[in-house]
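User: DUF6249 domain-containing protein. Structure?
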Amino acid sequence: MCSQSLQIHHNGVFNNTNYILKIILIMERVLIPILVPLGFFAMIFGIFYIRNRERMAMIERGMNPKVDLPQPHTNLKWGLLLIGCGLGLFLAYLLDSTVLHHEGEENPAVYFSLIAIFGGIGLYLSYKADMKYLEKQGSKE
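Assistant: Predicted structure:
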């Protein structure tokens, strides 16, 4: 009698687990298409709301919010960063295919490290170019 009640209880738990999994799958199919767009909308709304509050606070304090002021060296920074990452990726490919080549072995650490190193060098060169430009602008005034 005891073993029979344990088996029924065990089967009941197993059936409940399957039932719960089915409910979760149905909820995923229903909730994800609803919650993802709502979350995206809330994120965009929050960004614009906070930006507007920040600008209003600056205006109240008598500051200029500098709306849509172009930054001249942004393209230089991104260009040098991407050139550095490209050079790092190319050098990592050359090293991986010639010097560090072992049959059946991949070496992803080389790729990530060289992309980061050359990307950092690109950002450093962008910083140096910005400083040189600012010094030149300061000496003109």
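The chain is about 80% helix and 0% strand. Residues 1-67 form one domain.
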